[in-house]
Amino acid sequence: MPRSQHGGRHELGQNFLTHTPSLDRIDALVRNTRGPILEIGAGDGALTRRLAATGRRLTAIDIDEHRTHRLARALPGVTVRQADALRHPLLDPVIVGNIPFHLTTPILRRLLGERQWKDAVLVTQWEVARKRAGVGGQTMMTAQSGPWYTFALHGRIPRWGFTPAPSVDGGILTVARRDAPLLPLDARPGYERFVAAMFSGRGRTLDQLVASATGLDPRAARRALSDSGISARSLPRDLTPLQWVALWTLVRRRK
């Protein structure tokens, strides 16, 4: 395969998924969704062939022009395009992809900022998949997105299940847009600022973090936690989406 004008495998983060149980799992997850599919990072098409077999409209993109040309010839029923996942429109209701590991965070941020898609089934680094799914505690990105999206972990992919093998294992992560958001969309900027202030604020205890993030006095901060059903011994990573929303709603009113 000739070298792409955008770089070689290392620069493009090309680690092609070959692990059959993981391909089977992704296929099953996608079949539980509805609507046209956009695959990002199609590569050599191992997953593309599975997606094409669903019979749904499928668009597959990859930044490597040589692989897209070859894939288009092999799968004439699929719309195959040479495109950058950070720029291509995300208009389809289902987004699927083996994400280049070095682009995981910017691609996730872009997905969470778009409004059209409904379900995403993604392969990421194992630790990223665990953190986004809240295993071991919420991250700031997950907490900021919680009122509008749900995250779930669906398995670990051994590093030898990719060709060439990356330095870390992969994970299968799903992201679904909530049918009934916990907050209106116009509340998102203020809510995200509050979560960021809680994760980055000064304080050893949660009530101190609330006071620092909101300007409430310590007594009012403790009362807000109690009224939200949150233990003062909790940390920001321990809060559920419902607790985050309840806390933010209360402190906003009391300010």
Automatic annotation (TrEMBL):
UniProt GO MF annotations: methyltransferase activity
Residues that bind S-adenosyl-L-methionine: 15, 17, 41, 62, 84, 98
GO process annotations (BP): methylation
Domain Ribosomal RNA adenine methylase transferase N-terminal: 22-179
Cross-referenced InterPro entries: KsgA/Erm, rRNA_Ade_methylase_Trfase_N, SAM-dependent_MTases_sf
Pfam families, alphabetized: RrnaAD
PROSITE patterns: SAM_RNA_A_N6_MT (PS51689)
Top-level taxon of origin: Bacteria
Assigned keywords, A-Z: Methyltransferase, RNA-binding, S-adenosyl-L-methionine, Transferase
Family to which this protein belongs: Belongs to the class I-like SAM-binding methyltransferase superfamily. rRNA adenine N(6)-methyltransferase family.
NCBIfam families: Erm23S_rRNA_broad
Name listed for the protein in its UniProt record: 23S ribosomal RNA methyltransferase Erm
Lineage of producing organism: Bacteria, Bacillati, Actinomycetota, Actinomycetes, Micrococcales
